[in-house]
Write a structure and sequence with these properties.
By secondary structure, the protein is α+β, with helices and mostly antiparallel strands. It folds into two domains: 110 residues, no CATH class; 343 residues, no CATH class. The protein is built from nine helices and 13 strands. Helix 1 packs antiparallel against helix 9, helix 3 packs antiparallel against helix 8 and helix 6 runs antiparallel to helix 8. Keywords: Bacterial flagellum, Cell projection, Cilium, Coiled coil, Flagellum, Secreted. Belongs to the flagella basal body rod proteins family. Its main location: other.
Length: 477
């Protein structure tokens, strides 16, 4: 075993510990980088000397030849990634739905002691007071004021609910642009990775960037991710990822090719938002996602459901309540008390308090006021979404508010549960992939000591060579 081999061992040790130190420094530098996975240099002992052979020197045993950094490994658990993405889609869906319902509650000012139901009750109570034989001019003026307050409440709710639906349509348009950018960035990373891997490189940082983008995509859609393995010198190495929307099955990314994603007007001219504006659908590589072919799971699904179902249903309920109220109150009052046809344009048609519950010029007659007040508990047929429901004005109003409260609470609970599970899975991911500065500092000291020892080995061998070159053969001079 020559001194040259000793220098080679020391050189290899220096290079291996240096690579470990550089990788540790890279970890520390990216301790707070989103999506970064901790890296580790895998050290392996090199082949010993001499190699087994029938012609070797026959010396006893083999002498080691040092160490080499065989690879730089990215510490990441693929199973946890699958779990995380499977739950993250639920976070996106439930966040969108809870956001919509919470905003509907704000519009109706419910739950509150001054909300929509309170305004309705105040209107009915004003008629109860007029139905008393002693009701005078100020009491009848109160009926008009309460009627105007109710009409204005209907007008505001109708306007704001339609604006909310329009806002969710705008969000879908915005997400279409974000999705298009995401899938194209993933396809670009697939291309970069594909150009490096066949040449023996393992682009860990590119893998991290791609996984972070796939995580973001998984919040918007329920996706299938397939990693294509590449055989490099007998080893399987990750290459491109192919991504599909699960239901309906649509290709998002295939190798270096990304689907074109855009928002476009609904095909049917009659398919409008409640305010008459254009309703937008998603076009993914020629496949249209709309109410008839909506995605299952993810933020996009939550936005579409909220726009087309949740918000739309409350617009229809409020309008149905207003239109029935106009019809029934006017019929019982004889002379039109309300003007308009629904929540959008309901108003009070009477301005003179003497015209309130005035039966054939007999202001003292309270039969009309009793008839109008009785409507609060009269069974009426309400038609919402093609379904007929027979109930009273009071019960229908209460059902709107209670249903909204129950749906909002359910959506909030689902959102919080999904967020909690996602955080737990992410904590498990971080326990493997996350960077601990304390641990990295400990590793740095370890690698520094090993590097110093390897450098000391070079010094010792240098001294040995000096003795051989300059100290031998001078005896007796």
């Amino acid at each position: 075993m020559s001194t040259f081999s000793g220098l080679e061992i020391a050189k290899r040790a220096l290079f291996a510990q240096q690579a470990s130190l550089y990788t540790t420094g890279h970890n520390i530098a990216n301790a707070n980088t989103p999506g970064y996975s901790r890296q580790r240099v895998n050290l392996e002992a090199t082949s010993p000397y001499p190699y087994p052979s029938v012609s070797n020197g026959g010396q006893a045993g083999q002498v080691g030849t040092g160490v080499v950094g065989s690879s730089i490994e990215r510490l990441r658990e693929r199973f946890l990634d699958l779990q995380y993405r499977g739950i993250y889609k639920d976070v996106g869906e439930h966040e969108a739905r809870a956001d919509a319902l919470e905003k509907v509650e704000i519009i109706m000012n419910e739950p509150s002691d001054k909300g929509f139901r309170y305004v309705m009750d105040e209107f009915w109570n004003s008629w109860q007071k007029v139905s008393q034989p002693s009701a005078e001019y100020p009491t009848r003026e109160t009926v008009i004021q309460k009627g105007k307050a109710l009409a204005e409440t209907f007008n505001a709710m109708d306007r704001e609910l339609k604006e909310l639906q329009q806002d969710f349509d705008e969000q879908i348009k915005t997400r279409a642009g974000q999705l298009d950018t995401l899938v194209k960035e993933i396809a670009s990373l697939n291309k970069q990775i594909g150009e490096l891997v066949p040449h023996g490189y393992v682009p860990n940082d590119l893998y991290d960037k791609r996984d972070l983008l796939v995580d973001k995509l998984s919040k918007m859609f329920d996706i299938d991710v397939e990693t294509v393995a590449i055989d490099v010198q007998g080893k399987k190495v990750d290459g491109a990822v192919n991504i599909k929307l699960k239901q309906p099955s649509v290709d998002l990314v295939t190798g270096n090719i990304a689907a074109d994603i855009s928002a476009e007007p609904a095909a049917a001219p009659s398919d409008k938002l409640a305010n008459g504006n254009t309703r937008h659908v998603l076009n993914i590589g020629g496949t249209v996602l709309d109410a008839a072919n909506s995605p299952v799971g993810g933020e996009i699904s939550g936005l579409m459901q909220s726009r087309d179902t949740a918000i739309s249903s409350y617009i229809n309920k409020i309008d149905t309540l207003a239109s029935n109220l106009i019809k029934e109150v006017n019929a019982a009052h004889g002379k039109n008390f309300f003007s308009g046809t629904g929540a959008r344009d309901i108003g009070v048609a009477i301005s003179d308090p003497n015209d309130v519950a005035n039966n054939s010029g007999e202001p003292g007659n309270n039969d009309i006021a009793k008839a109008v007040y009785a409507l609060k508990h009269k069974s009426v047929t309400f038609t919402v979404g093609g379904n007929n429901t027979s109930t009273t004005f009071d019960e229908f109003t209460r059902s709107i508010v209670s249903t909204l409260g129950n749906e909002t609470e359910a959506a909030q609970n689902s959102r919080e549960n999904a967020i909690l599970i996602t955080k737990q899975i992410d904590m498990s991911r971080q326990s493997i992939s996350g960077v601990s500065p304390d641990e990295e500092m400990s590793n740095m000291i370890k690698f520094q000591h090993a590097y110093n020892a390897a450098a000391r080995t070079v010094t010792v061998i240098d001294e040995m060579l000096d003795k051989v070159i300059n100290g031998m053969g001078v005896v007796g001079r």
